[in-house]
Amino acid sequence: MQDVLIDSADGVMTLTLNRVEKKNSFTQAMYSACADALAQAAADASVHVVVVQGHATIFSAGNDISDFLNRGASTPDAPVFRFLRGLAAFPKPLIAAVCGPAVGVGTTMLFHCDLVYAGDNAAFSMPFVNLGLCAEAASSLLAPRLMGYHRAAEALLLGEPFMAEAAMEMGLVNRIVPPSEANNLAQSQARKLAAKPLPSLIETKRLMKKGQMADVLAQMDEEGESFGRLLQAPHAKEAFTAFLEKRKPDFAKL
Ligand code: COA
Question: Which residues line ligand 1 (CB under 6 A)?
Fold first, then answer.
C-alpha cells in the first residue's frame, strides 16, 4: 500500500496521507511523492485544485523521527525542501482537511493552504524546540503574523498544542465539523472551486500572496540552514532517541 495515495477526478487532485500505523509521519519518500504531485498539479491544466487529507483519527505526526535520526545534512534539493517550496509557491487553490493530531510539518504546512477544514478532534502543535530543532516551513514568519506574536511564542517556544476552536479563532481553520465529515467538506469545497474560471483563481491567489512570497521563501531558506545544523546537535539526538525509547528526554546532561 502506498504511503501517499494520489487521485484525480473532476479537476481535483487529492493527496491522502496513508501511513496510519506510524501516525502519517512523513518519510523522505512521502515528501518526494507530495512534491512530485504538487509539481504535476501545477503544470497540468486539467487539475484546478489540490486537497491534502489524512485519516479521521490522525492528520500527521510530522517528520518521521527515525528518519531525522538517520538523516545526514539536508541539501536545498532534499525532498522536504522541494515539498515545502512547492507548497508555498503552489499557484492553484490548496485545501486541507485535518482531523486528530497535526504535529510539526502537519501544522506548518497549513500556513500555505488556502482553506483548512478541521475535525473537532484536530490538535495542532509545533514542538520543534522540544526536539532540539527550530521552526520550519516559514512558520517563524507566518505564525506570528497569523496568530499574533505571543500566541505564536506559546506554540513555537513552549511547543504547546492548540485545538480546533483556537485555530479557528486565529484564522488558521475555516470551519470545524465532525471528523467523519472533514474530508467530504474539503472535497465539496474543492469541487466548487474547480468549477470556477481557473485563470481568475490563479491570478487572485497570486495577488493575495505576492506581498509576502519573497519573504516566505527567504525565511524558509534561513530556517532550513538552522534546522540542518540543529538536527546534527546533541539535543536533537537525545530528543529523537528518547522518543524512540518511549521515555522523556534529559537535556540536563548535555
Ligand atoms: N516518527 C516516527 N514514528 C512515529 C511518529 C513520528 N513522528 N509519530 C508516531 N510514530 C509511531 C510511534 O513510534 C508508534 O510506533 P510503534 O507502534 O512501532 O511503537 C506509532 O507511530 C504509534 O504512535 P503512538 O505515539 O503510540 O500514538 P499515540 O496515538 O499515542 O500518539 C502522537 C500520537 C502523534 C501524539 C504521537 O505519536 C507523537 O507525539 N508523535 C511524535 C510527534 C513529533 O514529535 N513529530 C515530529 C515533529 S517535528
Answer: 22-23, 25, 61-66, 101, 103-104, 127-128, 131
Judged by DSSP in three states, 53 sits in strand
Rounded distance between C-alpha atoms, residue 231 and residue 210, angstroms: 31
SS3 assignment, position 249: coil
Total residue count of the chain as it appears in this document: 254
Spell out the domain ranges in the chain.
1-178+197-254
Give per-residue pLDDT as tens, 200-245.
Answer: 999 999 999 999 999 999 999 999 999 999 999 999 999 999 999 9
What is the Å distance from ligand 1's center to 62 Cα? 9
Nearest protein CA to atom 42 of ligand 1, as residue: 61
How many angstroms does the Cα of residue 243 sit away from the middle of ligand 1?
8
Please write the tens of the pLDDT for every residue from 173-185: 999 999 999 999 9
Residues (pLDDT < 50) of the chain are: none
User: How many Cβ atoms from other residues are within 10 Å of residue 222's Cβ?
Assistant: 13
Question: 1-178+197-254, which class in CATH?
Answer: alpha beta
